[in-house]
Specification:
about 260 residues, alpha/beta, Rossmann fold, 6-stranded mixed sheet, 4-stranded antiparallel sheet, about 35% helix, disordered C terminus, binds adenosine-5'-triphosphate
Length: about 260
Amino acid sequence: MAQSFLEVKNLRKEFGGLTATNDVTFSMGRREIIGLIGPNGAGKTTLLRLISGILKPTSGSIKFKGKNITGAKTWNIVNMGIASTFQNMRPFRRLPIVANVMVPCLSPRAMKRGEWVKKVEAKAMDALEFAGISDMALEKASTLSQGDLKRLEVARAVATDPELLILDEPFGGLSPAETELMAKSVARLHKGGRFGRLHSEGPAMIIIEHKLQQLMKIVDRIIVLNFGTILADGPPDVVVKDPKVIEAYLGDGGTTCS
Ligand SMILES: Nc1ncnc2c1ncn2[C@@H]1O[C@H](COP(=O)(O)OP(=O)(O)OP(=O)(O)O)[C@@H](O)[C@H]1O
């Protein structure tokens, strides 16, 4: 049987008496882009944190490209090719925006193509250009609006040339116009190619998002979590019609949820 790109098996995380992810099992292919949805508290962010190494699971396993990464350190996971953005954004607020992106550019993974430090700023600028905030590169990160902080998060993640990019609510707090722009950038990145000195291999993606209309346009598969358990897993048009999903999350309005 062909080896999965990402293989999550019986992944469980308990916080005291609370089971945040309850034996979650799924796998994904190298070219997939998955939307991870579900009600508040369903366990989506916990699942993301387990895959990116911020949390250690209570039990279960995670394999990436055939290697067991369960409980591995975050920086090892980043160097293997998994990058994430988070809801609670924590940039180096006192540093210029471009310096925030130069830090991930100095990771062994980002440097592995034989780049030297003098090229790092140029590469960081290309990541900012990709995210649409290069004109503010020398401002302090503390001056950024919520929407632009999201862009900085994306720039920091793409600067490591990830093979799997995990985005936690990339459209959260953005205006409809900003959401449209971010959705287009994400879809473009998934296709891959060169963006200046940035080389995107077209990462696989897992995107947590509540703005379903926009999410549906860019993903080819949806996983629905509810009370830490996978309720549905399939193509977006099938999942949104699933009575279990409508009852637990979508309500009568279906995909009008934004
Ligand atoms: N560090 C923690 N300590 C204790 N409980 C936690 C912790 N992190 C998450 N939880 C709990 O685990 C459950 C799942 O939370 P999680 O943040 O993963 O849900 P979510 O689906 O991402 O929700 P949202 O859509 O609101 O972001 C919730 O009941 C939450 O309160």
